[in-house]
Design a protein that fits this description.
CATH architecture of the largest domain: Orthogonal Bundle
Number of strands: 0
Low-confidence stretches: none
CATH topology of the largest domain: Cytochrome Bc1 Complex, Chain D, domain 2
CATH class of the largest domain: Mainly Alpha
Number of domains: 2
Amino acid sequence: MRSIKSLVLVLSGTVFLASCGASGDDQGTEYAPNMYHSVAYEPYKQIKDKDAGRWVTSIEYKDGHAEYYNSNNLNPHQMNMREPAANTVRRNPQGWLPYRLPNDSVGLRLSDRLVNPLDSTVEVLAQGKALYEMYCDHCHGAKGAGDGKVADKYAGVPNYKSDALKNMTEGHIFHVITYGKNLMWAHGSQLNAEDRWRIAKYVKALQK
């Protein structure tokens, strides 16, 4: 009888351990699988298959879909976000409109007329300095003299204190940060409009 019990225990243990094996899409037997596998929404990927992630599903959804399904049946094309209303323009949290000047010589010339919406407060300048040190210092140098650590690798990094640049406006600086110019690449995708204005404010402070 003992040998039979031992055999049953060994077989049961073998089956249990074998069920934990994982390969490919089969993750084996897991305790609380939705704790191990993220079910966050994929912003650039829409999953319309209601059975996607069935193997990891542990919650009973009303319409029976699995964990990875992320479409919204209440919206057109099952989108998760609605399209903006026609003829509307997105504003940032400060209520500013998108920057519209073109990336050409006309836009660069017109940027001189722009007025920085931020005041020259201690806080704004401190924030501008922190951003400058993060994004600009390595080329333009701590004092804006064009002597950053990588400036010797790229000839032509401008000196902000030179006679040719000492009168450039904050709008001009903002425009160049947005689109780039000559050796400098565009930073409009890395820095939001408010941060670009902060850096422009700090650069003018450096020139003084």
